[in-house]
Amino acid sequence: MSAPTQIWPQDFAQTYRDKGYWRGVTFGEWLDEIAEKYGPATAMVAGDTQLSYTQLRSAAQLYSAGFVARGYQPGARVLVQLPNTAQFLPVVLGLFYAGLVPVYVLPAHRLREVVHLAVGSGARALIVAQSHEGFDYAPMARDALAQCPDLQEAFIDGAADDLTSLTALTHDTAPLEQPVARAPGDVAFLQISGGTTGFPKLIPRTHDDYIYSFEASAQICAVTAQSSYMVALPAAHNFPMSSPGFLGALSVGAKVVFALSPAPDTAFPLIAAQRITHVGLVPPLALLWMQAAPKTTHDLSSLQVLNVGGAKFTPEAAARVKPVLGCTLQQVFGMAEGLVNYTRLDDPQDVIIHTQGRPICPDDEILLLAEDGTPTPPGVPGILHTRGPYTIRGYHNAPEANHRSFIDGGYYCTGDIVLRRPDGNLEVQGRAGDHINRAGEKVSAEEIEDHLIAHEAVFDAAVVSVPDTFLGERSCAFVVLHDDQKVSPAALKAFMRARDIAAFKIPDQIIFTAKFQTTAVGKVDRKSLRAALKETHFAPQTAKSTPETPA
Ligand code: AMP
Ligand code: DBH
Prior knowledge:
By secondary structure, this protein is an alpha/beta fold. Among the domains are: 27-41 and 52-182, 3-Layer(aba) Sandwich (Rossmann fold), CATH 3.40.50.980; 435-534, 2-Layer Sandwich (GMP Synthetase, Chain A, domain 3), CATH 3.30.300.30. It contains 17 helices and 27 strands. The strands form seven sheets. It has a nine-stranded mixed β-sheet, sandwiched between helices. Strand 21 (412-420) and strand 22 (426-431) form a beta hairpin. The longest helix has 17 residues, at 53-69. It is globular. The chain binds adenosine monophosphate (AMP) and 2,3-dihydroxy-benzoic acid.
């Protein structure tokens, strides 16, 4: 298994360095910088744990010593699947300090995704929680060890006879006093992409590029040493990690507060107790907060900035943020592959409410292209392509996906249909690729279809996204059964659950249908098929007659 790399052409790299975007600092060195600069200030609060910057570095150094003592070599990949607990940050920073490469797995992921990510990244170890939201991770970790020959060891944040306890890592070793040397252009970690085809893809991000993106974000979001940033979304997501995220917050000496759940009954008391100033939410959660805020007894007056992104926030909802929550809305349109856009805090209300903002960096290049690859004229939406100092030039070990997702000149094809206004702000208008953006979690239609087709009764399946007032989008699967076969929607969903996949991939709705139309050559063009099914069943004028299939 080749080690992940991320390489920009020489002349681009030189420009990014010359302009000071790439500081030439690794995550290990960055941790030393912030610990020395902000030492006694509170860095992190999670449950009953509170750590100063000095203590956070010490905790990370203990973990890193443990990894080094166990023989993990610089550059080795380690899957991290932890919820927003007190261990997340010390463990991840400890991996960086030891020169290891975290691979961020969502707590919602299950065996199938874990194995896919372990094999794809060539991971040596897996770190899991004991349990979270009713799911017990130890059996899954054991199965992953059995299925992935390169996976040597699983660490658990708790106790399990045959797995190594995470705390045992920190025993019997002296903290590592210096970070294990890495080059700033090396891959620091692997993020995962929902993507538009097949399984999630691995996104290699470098020290240089990522540190730039969150340091610049902290400035744009006005996070300072006086701020308190709440991690409400799962910490492994790119958004709460870097836009501005807990890393942006730590880069300026702010306090980072982890919430185990983004639900108002957990988050609101924390906002009051910790005087939270900044938080990032996906649109459905922002709606939920706005519903709950008028009735709450908790004091939310410390809130200054609410970042909303991950999916389109409607102007109607955006307009209510300030009146209802009393803070400034900052829309953020980003992607784990790189490019992040923000509305600016001092933008006119029209921009804040109606647009998804503009890029972080003057050297973020944007191309809007028509389906045929030609640039669209000003004022005409196009498919957003981008390159810049923190946008990847390729996925890890994925030649086909790279062929599809990167065009000449190295631009990444986001698949988002975007209008650029004369003032430079972007409005996301739709999407060219077939994925479902379910409350900010992206799942490719193809991946869900593949799971459905694995059922013996299923002849074919096509999955589409359907607008949903709460989720933004929900998934609807059109399923063609083999002749003489019968299966209920509930049984099909149960079958998918039993395939050990994240729950957000299970179709929200299943509609059984007769055979799909095929093209003249008898081949189904999936893209047109999905579009046609969507048009027939969910076009506004026909929506009422859609047969609802009980699940
Ligand atoms: P991923 O590549 O999996 O990190 O997902 C990034 C994608 O999420 C983008 O390409 C958009 O499709 C979507 N997205 C993120 N933020 C926004 C936003 N504010 N408005 C609309 N779509 C968004
Ligand atoms: O959806 C995303 O992936 C996303 C949204 C907002 C993101 O990666 C980000 C900000 O950095």
